[in-house]
Amino acid sequence: QVQLVESGGGLVQAGGSLRLSCAASGRIFSFNAMGWYRQTPGKQRELVATITSDGSTNYAASMKGRFTISRDNAKNTIYLQMNSLKPEDTAAYYCKLAQRIGIQPIEYWGQGTQVTVSS
User: What would the pLDDT profile of 80-117 be if each residue is shown by its tens digit?
Assistant: First the structure.
């Protein structure tokens, strides 16, 4: 089993910055992908950014340039630096870890951390 604990959410004014962290623990294999997703009430969860254990990154188009994902493999932790925040970035942000056990893909999700951007 894998546990994911997010932190760093909060209230910030438009134009401000926040840094989210997600620490993973448990049965983690050397090759995996971790990422951030976000969700607002009544909407589907959407991709923010992902990063593999070898450092390959992928961003949603609307967040590229403002958000930066990074990871510390030694700590099994990923980060999301969010700059130039906008009110529409307000959402619950969730961390995900995806890996394979044999040929079976499996995903784990954190509990989420709320980000609120005031105008």
Answer: 999 999 999 999 999 999 999 889 999 999 999 999 99
- In tens, the pLDDT along 3-45 reads 999 999 999 999 999 999 999 999 988 889 999 999 999 999 9
Q: Per residue in 65-95, is it b (16+ CB within 10 Å) or e — as a string?
A: eebbbebeeeebbbbbebeebeeebbbbbbb
Dump the DSSP string for 52-88: ETT--EEE-TTTBTTEEEEEEGGGTEEEEEE-S--GG
Beta-sheet pairing, 104-109 with 46-52: unpaired
Q: How far is CA 32 from CA 22, 65, 83, in A?
A: 14, 24, 26
